[in-house]
Amino acid sequence: MSGHKKVAILISGGGSNMMTLVNSMTGDHPARPCLVLSNNADAGGLKKAAEAGVATAVVDHRPFKGDRQAFEAELVKPILDSGADIVCLAGFMRVLTSGFVSRFQGQMLNIHPSLLPKYTGLHTHARALEAGDAEHGCSVHEVTAVLDDGPLLGQARLPVLTGDTPDTLAARVLEQEHILYPAVLHRYAADDRTPVLLG
Ligand code: GRF
């Protein structure tokens, strides 16, 4: 494994983005997955990661009852133990405090289902439709203390079609997420910060 960057991936759900990242890190890719970590023991992605031979861990946020700092004090442990050089958020549905984020500044990426800076936060597909946007898509960015902010590392654009619903749009955006995130991670792990622009 010498020479490979180590990547920890944080998930909350099905982990389809996580699996595209895991599957991309083979051959001459400069990185390898070292950990898949979830705040939710029921996240379907945990089983998929384990089947792919990746170490998994769970830190449930619920016992911390909204104390984000106490939750993060536990969340950070398996990440540090894994020796991760890069942390990828992939459908990780907890807001992280500036203290946690600053610890991984310049090492942490997130994928968000909108053309940032448009539509930070939730319900991005419905909001794009309500606004009558002709175009929608997804973004990968470095994580900073501001939610869904930080330097853009890539975007994939797609046309909004007549008759699109939030679900049809989400499905097409997710297909693009699965192309964009591995492409960005590959460059990032090779210390190339040139944005990946698709579509
Ligand atoms: C994706 O739609 C992503 O944009 C959003 O959460 C979803 C994660 O899906 N933030 P998956 O867990 O990667 O399948």
What's the topology here?
Elements (H helix, E strand, L loop, with lengths): L4 E7 L4 H9 L6 E8 L5 H8 L4 E3 L9 H15 L3 E4 L8 H6 L4 E5 L11 H7 L4 E8 L9 E8 L6 H24 L6 E3 L1
Parallel strand pairs: 1-2, 1-4, 2-3, 4-5, 7-8
Antiparallel strand pairs: 5-6, 6-7
Helix pairs in contact: 1-6, 5-6
The protein binds 5-O-phosphono-beta-D-ribofuranosylamine.
The site of 5-O-phosphono-beta-D-ribofuranosylamine has 14 residues, from helix 1 and helix 6.
Could you please describe the fold and organization of this structure?
With 199 residues, the protein is of the alpha/beta class. The protein folds into two domains: 1-104, 3-Layer(aba) Sandwich (Rossmann fold); 110-199, Formyl transferase, N-terminal domain (Rossmann fold). The chain has six helices and eight strands, in the order βαβαβαβαβαββαβ. It has an eight-stranded mixed sheet, sandwiched between helices. The chain starts with a strand and ends with a strand. The model has no long low-confidence stretch (mean pLDDT 96). The site of 5-O-phosphono-beta-D-ribofuranosylamine has 14 residues, from helix 1 and helix 6.
Describe, in short, the structure shown.
The chain is α/β, with parallel strands linked by helices and 199 residues long. It has 6 helices and 8 strands, in the order βαβαβαβαβαββαβ.
